[in-house]
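[09:14] KT: can someone run the structure on this one? pasting the chain below
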Amino acid sequence: MYLKIRIFFLFLLIISCQPIETIKPVEIENKNFPKISINVKNVLINIKYDSVFSDKNIEDQVASPPLKIITDWNKENINIFGNENTLIINIIDASIYRSEIENTDAKKYEEKTIYKYEIFYLVEYQLFDDSDILLANTTVESSRSTTSQKYISLNERELIINDLTYNSLKDFSTEAKSLFETYMLEYLE
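[09:31] RB: done, structure tokens below
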């Protein structure tokens, strides 16, 4: 009898020791996104965005906030060459919000309220010559949103945010490359 009880508890112990799947924070490989090579000597990054902490703003709840992601992208994907000119990068907005919205497409037994996640980037690029005369400028704006059920696991929430973050940076990269080619073509390699 005691042997059966011990085997039963041993079985429970082994079952309870199964590995738990954990989601790693989003690690974006900037080398996979378009590069911009521009004829400048200096690059200055000004962070003008000041995070507004509210119930909707979830920047403090994500492992890699949008401000860090967009700053890293600018550092790694803007390649400089040359010995004149200065590129000033003003990061104006890099926010991520979650808000409750009404699920207008809800069926009979589905939740009536869902979450909407929104990410937004706004970055201004200004190219100055050595006499501080503005040669060219452009503003890159990108936003993306998605929805989820209100009651989901933390694991599912992280997957949703990771996917949203990656896709929004992909959109931003494509838009930045296009606008640089439109407004700063003569300074690009």
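[09:33] KT: thanks! Strands lie at 36-39, 42-47, 78-81, 86-102, 113-128, 134-149.
[09:34] RB: yep, looked fine to me
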